[in-house]
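Sequence in, structure out. Go.
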Amino acid sequence: MTDLNLVLDYLQRLPAYPFDSSVDPDFVDELLIDFSHIDVLEQIKAFRWYHNGDPAAHTKNLRLAIRRWLSMAIVRTPEPF
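Output:
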């Protein structure tokens, strides 16, 4: 399971991410609960680099975009046998 603090630290360093210490701990906690069966941190890293290191240039609402990315990761991740 991905650690809350690791994800928060990464979001703080994500270019142009609107980090808010009053919002993001709850946001990340919700992501970790809702997407507990995937590696949230790895998926956020993939999201960043899919957008050439600057996801803010491609979307206005980064939190929503990350949530959608994680939702799609469920579709792309095959079920284990």
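Check: The chain has one domain: 4-76. Residues 4-76 form one domain.
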